[in-house]
Structures are given as C-alpha cells and as structure tokens.
Design a protein that fits this description.
UDP-N-acetylmuramoyl-L-alanine:D-glutamate ligase; 9-stranded mixed beta sheet; 5-stranded mixed beta sheet; 33% helix
Length: 330
C-alpha cells in the first residue's frame, strides 16, 4: 500500500451498513473424474465420479464475501432465490455469516436458484454447468424488491448495484425506477457493476473494464487500450452517467475519473500463476468500503488495486482480501 494510505480507514469500515441488490448465485466446486472404468448397469454408459463438493457465494454473493472479509459490520442482500436445495444453501451461506436476508425473496417454482457448478479436474476447471442464469422475474416480484430497497435506503451508508446474468434481475426497463431512488438519497454512496446496463444508471460510481467501456459507448475496443484511450472515452461515459467512473485495466492498474479529476494507480508486479476470477467483485467491495469510510478517490483506488492483487493470487477460488493482507502486499 502507498505510505500515505491511512490505515485508520480500516477502523471505520466495521461501522458501515451496506446493501447489495442484484444477481446472487452459489458457486459449487467439486472434484470430477471421467475415466473411472465403471459402467452404469441401467444405461450402459460410463459413470463419472464427483467428490469433495464445496459451495460458496458467487456473483453478487462474492461481493458480499469481500465486504465481510474487509470487516463491514452490516450487509443487507436484496435479490431472489428459488424454492430448491440451492436456494436453501444460499440462505445458509448468508445466515451463517450474519448477512441480513430479510429482502432475499424466494420466488415461485418456475425460478431456479442460480448456480455455477464448476467441475475441477486437478487444477483445471472443466465445462461449467449453469442453473438459473436465464430466469425471468415478474414485475410484481421486482416491485416487492424495489419497495424493500425504498424502506432500507435511509439506513444504509452505501448500496452496491450488481448485474451478472444474461437475464438479470435489473433489466434495462427497471433502471429508471432505480435511478429515481438514487436521486432521492444523495447521502448514500452508490457503486455499480453492470455488464449490460451500466450506462443507463445516473449519479453512481460505475466500475467497468475496458471492454465494457467500449461496449457501453458502442465503439471499437483496441487490442491494448492505453491510458489516453481510457481517459478520453471514460470522460465521455462519465458525462453520460453524471457520476464517477472506475476503469479496471488488469496488469496496467486502474483509473478513476469524475467531472474534475483523474486518478491513476499502476498494477502491482505479481508472481504467477494468477487467477482473475472474481477480481472485479473485490474491486467493487473495496471501493465501496473505502469510499464509505471516508477515503478520498485516490486512496480508495489504491485500496481496491491492492485488494485485487491479493485475490488474484488465490487460485481455483473466488478469493477475498482482508485488511491485513491488503496492508502487507507490496
């Protein structure tokens, strides 16, 4: 961490109250063996073996895990699960970590809890099997969540807005009512990470990678976008959304832009191998925690950059970063 980073920020983080609305999933890892020599008597097909199933929170749930690792005191989740075994597991994973699930809605039998099932063959992930990523949420159920958010916002220091799925909870036509709530609560810190509809939000701190930036602006994405490209087009998106923009650039580091300032932090030199899965979730959580605790944009950027550097070194897992790990990284 930079020598001028105030570690006092970490003492303020436990008092924060943070909400997350969006797409939650269960990450289900298991060891997978295909060459077993066993044949099913019923089908005559080869039998594959699974072992050591292990579940963790994924998608927006991984943001929750990162917030908890940073020491956030109170976390509220606002989203949907199905009436199935994975929905029960998600609730269990949340509740054993004291996450507030009052607004985690169990939808009807036509809704599958989202699961990313990840068969592992040694250190290699085989074809992922997804459940529930193409659910369709009714307007009535969305309005329930919106009402819950309306009631909860006055108690929150920050709200994270998340979209992960091809068929998300926050479809483009639902961004308008969300923008109205954002406008009505100027003291809440809003941080967003939406794969498809981020450019429709107004007045939030929006996290994008360079490919998302190009897609939101409907421009070509160069093979190696440099700093000038990021600043030029990042400024255009900032003017459109009316809020700050954070651009993640992998090994090249990160940028923060608002209507007056640009801050940059270089990527840290790390030994390989690296696993970047979930690094964006770490960035969102760290930014939210730092900004909510009173860090300046440049300090929050440095914290998020260091936190991501911690998690990418944790292989075959959606890793998190603790304050101790962040402060010790060089």
């Amino acid at each position: 961490m930079p020598p001028d980073f105030p570690s006092l920020i970490f003492t303020r983080i436990p008092s924060l109250k943070v909400g997350i609305i969006g797409d939650f999933a269960v990450d289900l890892y298991f060891d997978y063996q295909t060459q077993t020599g066993e044949i099913s008597l019923e089908t005559g097909l080869g039998v594959h073996w699974g072992a050591q199933p292990r579940a963790s929170l994924g998608a927006a749930g991984n943001v929750v895990q990162n917030l908890l690792a940073l020491g956030i005191g109170t976390v509220w989740v606002m989203g949907c699960v199905g009436p199935d075994l994975f929905g029960r597991e998600m609730r269990h994973l949340f509740e054993r970590q004291d996450v507030q699930t009052d607004h985690l809605l169990t939808v009807g039998e036509d809704w599958d809890t989202c699961v990313y099932a990840k068969p592992m063959q040694g250190d290699t992930e085989a074809n992922r099997i997804d459940f529930g990523s193409h659910n369709t949420l009714s307007d009535n159920d969305f309005n329930y969540l919106l009402d819950a958010l309306r009631q909860r916002l006055p108690q929150l220091d920050a709200l994270i807005i998340n979209q992960q799925f091809p068929s998300p909870l926050l479809t483009p036509d639902r961004i308008g009512p969300l923008n109205e709530l954002i406008r009505q609560h100027p003291t809440v810190r809003f941080v967003a990470d939406l794969r498809d509809s981020g450019a429709l939000l107004r007045g939030v701190t929006l996290k994008v990678n360079t490919a998302e930036l190009a897609r939101f602006l409907n421009i070509n994405h160069p093979q190696n976008p440099d700093t000038d490209w990021c600043v030029k087009h990042g400024a255009a998106l900032t003017r459109q959304t009316g809020g700050p923009l954070v651009i993640t650039r992998g090994e090249a580091g990160m940028l923060y832009l608002d209507d007056k300032h640009t801050h940059a932090v270089a990527g840290l030199s790390l030994p390989g191998p690296l696993d970047t899965v979930g690094a964006g979730d770490t960035v969102v959580a760290a930014l939210t925690a730092a900004l909510g605790a009173g860090a300046s944009p440049s300090q929050a950027l440095a914290l998020a950059n260091a936190a991501a550097a911690v998690t990418v070194q944790k292989l075959s897992q959606t890793g998190t970063a603790t304050p101790e790990e962040i402060l010790n990284i060089t």
